[in-house]
Design goal:
By secondary structure, the chain is α/β, with parallel strands linked by helices. The protein has two domains: 148 residues, no CATH class; 142 residues, Rossmann fold. It is 36% helix and 13% strand. It is built from eleven helices and twelve strands. The strands form four sheets. A five-stranded parallel β-sheet has the order 8-7-9-10-12. Strands 3-4-6 form a three-stranded parallel β-sheet, with no helix packed on it. A two-stranded antiparallel sheet has the order 1-2. It is globular, with a radius of gyration of 21 Å. The N and C termini lie far apart (54 Å).
């Protein structure tokens, strides 16, 4: 049976679109801003506002440090082009003199001032880390899975780079386990038996269970895994992105494992024997994914996050 991966992201398409955006006069973006903000009336306002407030938790004015923020007109690409273009797409809609503070990459520490970031620690003290949809070409990859859960093999799969202690310990313990098809993809010198090389998403989807392990921040495979008909298993997440991993509930959206994954055999056996329980969790995972699959709605939320950011930092005037 053929597996369809119709939502696999194309880097060529991503960069081509951003090249076209760079050729569009700024005045056109600014004229469209008011129209796009007015489309809020087409959606559930409470739902949109709750997501905006989740990403930007501040509700009182704040100041941006002069030496840590940059005017939009001085925003330049300095490596990490996917991050640059993802933010640039939205900055195009705002005034050139407005300033933002941001940080690209996998760092997750929280600064003493509000800044835009891809990922942050899950918790109550992360308000200064303002989540934005960054590096989406890599992370926001949703797929269509033509295999049902019951058609798949009773095995858990994982492939990834194993540089962090949690990943190293896991792959070394389970690379040869009969219920697991796991291995690291980073080159080793000398070669190690747990080095198994690349496995495509299509091949991973032939297994009932997909392990999602955090690395420097969130698990990159979590988003496509939750859009599949396989069951996502993972330790309780410690980091979150635009995907709102902090709202995911164990036993509802995914199967929670111990931090050292020592209960992995028990959980695989249970859900292999109780497919109806697995399918209920998979359905809830699909529902969570669904809210991120509407491009115009996602664009509106991103614009509203920046609008709120500029309002609270004193850079957006009523009637603007």
């Amino acid at each position: 049976m053929t597996l369809k991966l119709s939502h696999k992201n194309s880097k060529f398409t991503f960069y081509s679109r951003n090249l076209l955006r760079s050729l569009t006069p700024r005045v056109i973006y600014q004229r469209r801003l008011r129209y796009l903000l007015n489309t809020l009336n087409q959606y559930d306002r409470h739902d949109i506002e709750s997501r905006v407030n989740y990403y930007l938790k501040h509700n009182t004015p704040f100041e941006l440090p002069t030496d840590k923020s940059v005017q939009i007109k001085r925003y330049r690409k300095k490596g990490q082009s996917a991050y640059y273009y993802d933010l640039k797409e939205f900055l195009n809609y705002f005034e050139q003199q407005q300033k933002v503070a941001y940080r690209f990459g996998d760092e997750t520490h929280v600064e003493p001032y509000p800044f835009l970031v891809k990922a942050r620690p899950i918790g109550d003290d992360n308000a200064n880390a303002v989540l934005f949809k960054l590096n989406k070409v890599r992370h926001f990859n949703f797929i269509e899975d033509s295999l049902s859960f019951r058609e798949k093999s009773d095995i858990i799969v994982w492939r990834g780079a194993a540089y962090q202690p949690n990943r190293i310990a896991f792959v070394q313990q389970y690379y040869n386990h009969p219920m697991c098809d796991v291995g690291q993809t980073n080159p080793c010198t000398p070669s190690q038996p747990w080095e198994k090389g690349f496995m495509s998403i299509a091949d991973q989807l032939r297994y009932k269970f997909i392990l999602c392990l955090e690395g420097n921040d969130v698990a990159t495979n979590l988003k496509w895994a939750m859009s599949s008909n396989s069951l996502c298993m993972m330790p309780k997440p410690k980091f979150e992105t635009w995907f709102m991993e902090g709202t995911l509930k164990a036993g509802i959206h995914y199967v929670e494992l111990k931090d050292d994954c020592s209960d992995i055999e028990e959980k695989v056996l249970y859900y292999s024997q109780h497919p109806e329980a697995a399918e209920a969790i998979i359905a809830n995972a699909h529902e969570h994914v669904h809210q991120f699959c509407h491009p115009q709605r996602e664009k509106l939320i991103g614009l509203l996050v920046l609008k709120k950011y500029f309002e609270l930092s004193g850079q957006w005037q009523p009637g603007q």
